[in-house]
Amino acid sequence: MSRPYTIALVGNPNSGKSSLFNALTGLNQKVGNFPGVTVDKKTGSSKISDTLTANIIDLPGTYSLYPKSADEQVTYEVLLNQHSSDRPDQIIVIADAANMKRNLLFCTQIMDLKIPVVIVLTMMDIARQKGITIDTEGLSRMMGVPVVTANPRRNKGIDVLKKAISSTRQNRPAPLPDFTDLYAITGDWLQEIKELCGLDSNYGALHIACNFAELKYINAAQRIRIAALLGEAGFQKSRIQAQEIMQRYKKIDTIMQQCVTTDSPMKKMVMSDRFDKVLLHPVYGNVILLAVLFLLFQSIFLLARYPMDWVEHGFVYAGNLLNMVLPAGIIKDLLVNGVLAGISGIAIFVPQIMILFGLITILEDSGYMARISFLTDRIMRSAGLNGRSVMPLISGMACAVPAIMAARTIQNKKERLITIMVTPLMSCSARLPVYTMLIALVVPDRRLWGIFNLQGLVLMGLYLLGFFMALAVARVMNFLIKTKERTFFLMELPVYRQPRWKNVGVTMIEKGKIFIRDVGKVIIVLSLILWALAAFGPPAEMSAVEIRYATLVQQHPEQKTQIEREHATAKLEHSFAGIMGHSIEPIIRPLGYDWKIGIALITSFAAREVFVGTMATLYSVGDTEAGKATLHEKMKEAKREDGSPVYTLAAGLSLLIFYVFAMQCMSTLAIVKRETRSWKYPLIQFVYMFGIAYLSALLVYQLLK
Questions:
Q1: Where residue 36 falls among pLDDT bands split at 50, 70, 90?
Q2: CA-CA distance, 436 to 225, in Å (whole number)?
Q3: 176, 197, 389, 448: most buried, per Cβ within 10 A?
Q4: CA distance linking residue 448 with residue 457, whole number of Å
Q5: How far apart are CA 421 and CA 183, in angstroms?
Q6: How many helices (H) and strands (E) does the chain have?
Q7: Residues 6+ away with beta carbon under 8 Å from 597
Q8: What are the pLDDT digits (tens) for 67-119?
């Protein structure tokens, strides 16, 4: 089977590369990892013409072909390694028309690799607002490659781009001369490296000379010979790179003079600049940020209330229906109290998960998320981090696993490690079902001053608590981990744009599906295991319970209903699940938890949201009228042996605090191990997070009980 025609998308961050990838591939996408690394590999198929369907690779964004992070290193190796399976047959370079000079530097570097190139100019509307006019035909003549304009967010210019791609493939142009006179700044050894490594371009040979020790595809014999050649030539990497960049900018200045005109030497103030004067103000900006976060958490409760009620009552109806149509027995018990109860416990929170992801997508799509990084850079630095750590931390509000992977964009190794270690303290979407269930259980549903929802305020407080604890731990780790490496936080702020509502809707639906599919698998398996553990126990003990309560029914037939309820509770207590819960009860009793909560703490180590499914199963197994009441009603009526309620304000807040800080996620520990390549850091992470969680929960319960 022949290798599919492969096109790589490359460009600076915030240039519109991901939008173009989505416009070209639609829903024909998949995400994996590049071989040997944990960096995301987004690929998709696109019908370019009637005779060509291409494989599109969205390479990580980078500012130049001199990599500074793991993401940029991946782009670098894919483009330079001629033997890579991901080596593209054609490259689409996405350039921001509003920042042409910087983008053209990267374009010329890519073109010198001698791979067919098409340049796509995006952000043309922003360029016009700044008074910038670009002669695309003249630019194409001077660059020697096709130049087209596109607005992928609105699906404009895609057909013209596809024609340029098809034409470039059919009429492959002869390689253009290098944009730099490499032999004038290097020597004959460059040609020998080019032949030694079997390269197409002189520029590729220069990069191997600069980075041969780090490039994995260079073999030992090649390394030895290259090192010898460079030693003989007195090679100085930094000097040659500086000369190369200066030569490129001389030619780029000539191109800019002939093809790009600006109405005024001073850039016009576009709408984004006006917004930034307010939104990035050191006082007003932070006030607005807090207001945005406040509205976000209020919305999660207010917007999700009705769909959550519909889902909950739908499962109650399904439970009643199964109770009526299925004959009594183990199969009915398994389906109603095991499978249905477990699934219902998590499905009810899907609307909140979807709303959370939808709101985060709006913040990202509008350009405001990048401003959050800028605003919080000062507070990050006080904890030994910088603004680049903000994006992984904010992403941690959705899921810690991709958030930890996003930390690889941090160049400083110490800051990257600290970010990885504290990111799980951010309240992820897996905690949201636990939060909302317990908040609804112990926090009154009332408004403060007639405006603010108290439950929403508590939810926001839990998220902020995780964030500030992450900063506190980061500060301690910054003191303990010593390094001389320093970094500076530089980032380009994207322009403000109207969110793509279709993209928001698709993201909500996709995240909801992923949550149901991925979590649902775990929930179903654990629900079945938990049902079996709760339904069965040591034969001798279970037999004694049966005999005891059968005798009580015979002796007191008028109290049959009450005795049956006590019988169900006794069976659960003497089951294997009950034994597990009672075994850890001495440890968790000071926190205000009973043995049922103990079981949920054990099972939710697989994933935090399993807590809800576990409680749903446990309270269904112990209920003689399964399906008659919602989980909320069952937990509200739960009593201890002395008749006091299980879920008091003190116990509920203690449990909430425990889940804010505890590392209850095997997937997160696994990804930390993969990113740090050691079990030492996940172990430290688990121990310190459990210690903070236990002590904080203990303090809260003992003060409030």
A1: very low
A2: 63
A3: 389
A4: 10
A5: 47
A6: 34, 11
A7: 581, 588, 646, 655
A8: 776 667 778 878 887 777 778 889 999 998 888 888 888 888 888 888 889 99
* Distance of alpha carbon 9 from alpha carbon 61, whole angstroms: 9
Q: Give me the pLDDT at residue 38, please.
A: 37
Q: Which domains does the chain have, with CATH numbers?
A: 6-262 (3.40.50.300)
Kindly state the tokens that stand for 316. Answer: 């109650």
Q: What is the pLDDT of residue 387?
A: 66
Mean pLDDT of 28-36: 43
Helix axes 454-480, 649-661, angle to 10 degrees: 40
Backbone phi, then psi, for 83, in 5-degree steps?
Answer: -100, 5
Q: Would you say the pTM of this structure is higher than 0.85?
A: no
Percentage of the chain modeled with pLDDT above 70: 83
Distance CA(273)–CA(279), nearest Å, equals 10
- H-helix or E-strand containing 386? none
DSSP 471-540: HHHHHHHHHHS----------PPPPP----HHHHHHHHHHHHHHIIIIIHHHHHHHHHHHHHHHH---HH
User: From its phi and psi, is residue 500 left (phi > 0), alpha (psi between -120 and 50) or beta?
Assistant: beta
User: Residue 633: helix, strand or coil by DSSP?
Assistant: helix
CA torsion through residues 475, 481, 482, 484, sign: negative
> What is d(CA 412, CA 68) in angstroms, rounded to the nearest whole number?
10
Q: Are 351 and 260 in contact (CB under 8 A)?
A: no
